[in-house]
Amino acid sequence: xxxxxxxxxxxxxxxxxxxxxxxxxxxxxxxxxxxxxxxxxxxxxxxxxxxxxxxxxxxxxxxxxxxxxxxxxxxxxxxxxxxxxxxxxxxxxxxxxxxxxxxxxxxxxxxxxxxxxxxxxxxxxxxxxxxxxxxxxxxxxxxxxxxxxxxxxxxxxxxxxxxxxxxxxxxxxxxxxxxxxxxxxxxxxxxxxxxxxxxxxxxxxxxxxxxxxxxxxxxxxxxxxxxxxxxxxxxxxxxxxxxxxxxxxxxxxxxxxxxxxxxxxxxxxxxxxxxxxxxxxxxxxxxxxxxxxxxxxxxxxxxxxxxxxxxxxxxxxxxxxxxxxxxxxxxxxxxxxxxxxxxxxxxxxxxxxxxxxxxxxxxxxxxxxxxxxxxxxxxxxxxxxxxxxxxxxxxxxxxxxxxxxxxxxxxxxxxxxxxxxxxxx
Length: 425
Prior knowledge:
Blueprint: H1 2-34, H2 46-65, H3 68-71, E1 72-76, H4 91-94, H5 103-118, E2 133-137, H6 151-164, H7 188-195, H8 199-221, E3 223-228, E4 231-235, H9 238-245, H10 253-280, H11 291-310, H12 325-346, H13 352-372, H14 375-379, H15 394-422
Antiparallel strand pairs: 1-2, 3-4
Helix pairs in contact: 2-11, 2-15, 6-12, 8-9, 8-10, 8-15, 10-11, 10-13, 10-15, 12-13, 13-15
C-alpha cells in the first residue's frame, strides 16, 4: 500500500515539475516573440542592435571604461536626512561608496583640475565644482544590487515619471503600486494616451522608461546570491529578472520596458556618431597627465566612433523638433529643464551607490540629447581652438561614455538571461 502511495506521489511530483517547466518554456517563447522585430518610432530592428552591440561595441566600450580618464567621476554626496533607509534592508552596507583613492590619484586630480581650469568653458558646470564634490573610482563601485527597494525606490521613480514625462495626473502608469486602485484597468489607457502625444514627448517617456529598465537589468545581473564567511557572491538572478520583465508576471509590461531600453541605446548611439567631429580635432585630448595613455584612450574612443558611424539603422533625430522654430526651441528647453529636475530627484535616493549611478546615467543621457540638439554647432567647430557654440566638460564626457557603456552592458546581459531561461527548457 505504501509503495503504491509513494509511486502516486512521485507521479504527482513529476506532473507538477513538468507543468512548471512548461510554464517557464511558455514564458520564454512569449518573451522572445514580443521582444523582436522593428522598434516603434524608428526603422531599426532589435536583432541588428544585438549583433552590432555584441560584436563591435561591447568589447571596446568595456576597455575604454577601464582607462583612467573614464573611470573617475566627480560626485557630490547629497544631503539626505530621509529616514527611508529603514526600508532599504542591506542598502546601508551594500550601497556604501568605496571612496578609496591612492595618493598618486589625488595628486593627479589636482593636475586635472588645473588643466581643466585652463580651458575655455562656455557651458554650465552645474555642481561639479562644488567644494564637497570628490572623485569616485567607478571600477571600485560597480552598479549592482544593494537592497534598496520597496516604497523608497518606488517613490523616487514615481516622482521622475509624474513630474517629467508630460503626463497628466489622471493617467496612471501600469503596475504603479503608488497609484490609486483602478479596478479592471489593464494599463492600456496609459498607452492610448502615450500614442496620442507628439513624437518628441513620446520619445522622452521612452528614454526614461529605457533608463529605468537598464538600471533594473543591472541589478538582476549583479544580484547578491549568497554571502558565505563574509564574502558575497554576485551573479544573475533569473527569478528576479522574471519578476521584473516576464510578460506574464508583468501583464505584458516587461517587453515594452525592454524595447524602450533598445530605443534608448539607439538614441545614445546616434549621439556618439554625431559628436565624433568634436573629438577628432587635435585641440581635444583626454588629459590625465600621461601622454602615452591619453593618446591610446583617444585612439580607442575614435575607433568606437568609427563603429558607431558604420551602423546602418540609426535613429533619425531630424524627425524631432521639425515644427516651427519657436515651438521647437521651447520644447528643447523643456527637455533640458526636465533633465535637471530628474538629476535633483536622484539626489533624494537613499542609497549612495544607487544615487551615484543614477545621476551619472541621467547626466550621460542629458549630454547625448545636448549633442543631438547641437548638430550645426558641432559641424562648424574650428579645428585648433575652442568654440562658444559647443563644448563638453570632462564630467559630461565621462558620463556620456559610462552611461552608454551601461546600456551596452544591459543589452549584453539581456542575451545572457535569454540563454539562462532557455536552459530551463
